[in-house]
Amino acid sequence: MSRGDAVNGGDGASSRGRSIGDRGTAWLRTTGEDHEIVLSTRVRLARNLQGFPFSLRGAREDRERVLERVREVLPSTRLLAEATLWEMSELDPIDRRLLHERHLVSRELIGPDDGPAPAGSALALNAEGPCGLMINEEDHLRLHTLCNGMDLEAAWKHVDALDEELGGMLPFAFHHEFGFLTCCPTNVGTGLRASVLIHLPGLVLTKEINKVLQGIAQVGLTYRGLYGEGSEVVGNFFQISNQTTLGKSEDDLVDHLREIVGQVIEYEKRARAVLLREAPSVLEDKVWRAYGILRHARSLAFDEMMNLLSGVRLGLTLKLLRTPRVRTLNEIMIFAQSAHLERRAGRTLDEGDADVFRAALVRELFFTDEESAASPSESRHDAAD
Amino acid sequence: MLCERCQERNAEVHLTSIENDEMATVHLCTTCAAEQGITGSTPAPAPLADFLAQIGKSVDDPSRSEVSEPCPYCGTSSEDFRHTGRLGCPQCYVHFEGQLRGLLRRVHGSTQHVGKLYLSEASGVDDPTAHLRNLKLRLERAVELEDFEAAAELRDQIHELEGVTP
């Protein structure tokens, strides 16, 4: 592969061949149920191969042999036959960060920004379709699906099908009592982590959020920030997921999460209704200020942008704003991160430069949506949904 | 602002709640808030920290002694495990089985996997007991699916294996 073709993040460029292009961004399209509140649904399964140390403990040769085993079987699968397999070591650091910013790989898989990628770590991903496969993270395999909106059933169904296919070709480590064996015992059993990335500004503004989060913990679920374990909550986005993986079936884990998240969505809607009724002018001011800053600012830090986007997203759902589209907000969350901005700029950016490029991108995308909403022939209806 | 309950100390906890679609805010001092069972902190989203604490407990428990030998397959020791919270290889689960069972019960509330079964032809062939168990599970599944041809073949394999396994 030539270095030159693995470029172009986030500009909708061709995703053919081995370039990253806009691969793995289909989940930003607002097609799923409750997509204004739930940004995405993800289900992952952790699997390991018999006869090898777990990737975290494996020597370079072990990790490379695991990758070879997987590379051999992928063409025989139905779900990942057409997938591109990127070894992290063959990607430049910006491309690795692009994949991380799109929530397709973890920090552990890509390694440090200023050092080499871990040996044998790789990602298999289709041009279309929700399935992906991380190879040599702490476990040998992390199968995942990522869908827009609230769609746990579909996400589980896809990853289950991929598991069946891979399990028929690779010798998974399985114990009659403990189930699927994983590097960390917090994942053992089903190896399943189902999570929903949910936007809860109403509960934050009415100060109900702590109560809801405590409730979530009491029923065996947990929450994290935007990038999973160890990451902070920004822009009122919470990632809610199952805490335990052993002693319950996959269906039970997924159903339980669906039920609880359904309740959280209801609480959020109720909180928004209360805000709209009790403090309409405060709310409207907050939304329009957020819109105004995003529409006109000349420099935006990422966290500041995320908090303002939260206000605009809330304003769209409450019909206080007509533009931009929710999908545009989703895209900004991904494409206005530093690696995407660097790819667009064609050079590395220091923090100050990145803030300037970020503000320019946001202004451009907000303007485009305003323009298309103003001309009826090109109006896109999902903005006001 | 004074605490609404004791009217003595400063109100430091401001709790807004929605009941019957009405928003209500109470202002309490930390003492009264604690007495009402209201805490200001959110649950810590740190499963690994919890988990490591659990390991600590298992060490303190004299009835549950640690396995002193490292895993013969990958060399991971009890101490490595306690330090990182990570096991080294699938065999570690067999080697540290006793120690892990208590831990898994505390972390997950169970030790018994009840989800999908892994029934590959190849799995467990090096271990006749595991292989037999695997065949029986596959037989159960074949019967459930009314695949009687596969069931008959599996039953024959089980009989053959039981003939040689004590």
Question: Mind explaining what this structure looks like?
Answer:
The complex is a heterodimer of chains A (385) and B (166). With 385 residues, chain A is α+β, with helices and mostly antiparallel strands. Chain A has 2 domains: 31-274, 2-Layer Sandwich (Creatine Kinase, Chain A, domain 2); 279-384. Chain A is built from 12 helices and 10 strands. In chain A, strand 4 (131-135) and strand 5 (141-148) form a beta hairpin. In chain A, helix 8 packs across helix 9 (302-317) and helix 11 (338-345) crosses helix 12. By secondary structure, chain B is mostly helical. Chain B has 3 domains: 1-41; 47-108, no CATH class; 116-166, no CATH class. In chain B, helix 2 (47-60) crosses helix 5 (97-108) and helix 6 (128-144) packs antiparallel against helix 7. The N and C termini of chain B lie far apart (78 Å). The model of chain B is unreliable at 40-46 and 58-63 (pLDDT under 50). Chains A and B meet through helix 4, strand 6, strand 7, helix 6 and strand 9 of A and strand 1, strand 2, helix 2, helix 5 and helix 6 of B.
Q: Notable features of this structure?
A:
heterodimer; A: 385 residues; alpha+beta; Creatine Kinase, Chain A, domain 2; 2 domains; eight-stranded antiparallel beta sheet; two-stranded antiparallel sheet; 12 helices; 10 strands; 43% helix; 14% strand; globular; disordered N terminus; disordered C terminus; B: 166 residues; mainly alpha; two-stranded antiparallel ribbon; elongated
Layout of helices and strands:
The complex is a heterodimer of chains A (about 375) and B (about 170).
Chain A lengths: L37 E10 L12 H14 L10 E4 L5 H9 L5 H4 L11 E4 L5 E5 L5 E8 L3 H18 L4 E2 L3 E2 L11 E8 L1 H5 L3 H10 L2 E4 L12 E6 L7 H29 L1 H17 L5 H16 L8 H10 L2 H8 L5 H24 L11
Antiparallel strand pairs in A: 1-5, 1-8, 2-3, 3-4, 4-5, 6-7, 8-10, 9-10
Helix pairs in contact in A: 2-11, 8-9, 11-12
Chain B lengths: L12 E7 L2 E7 L1 H6 L11 H14 L17 H7 L7 H4 L1 H12 L19 H17 L3 H17 L2
Antiparallel strand pairs in B: 1-2
Helix pairs in contact in B: 2-5, 6-7
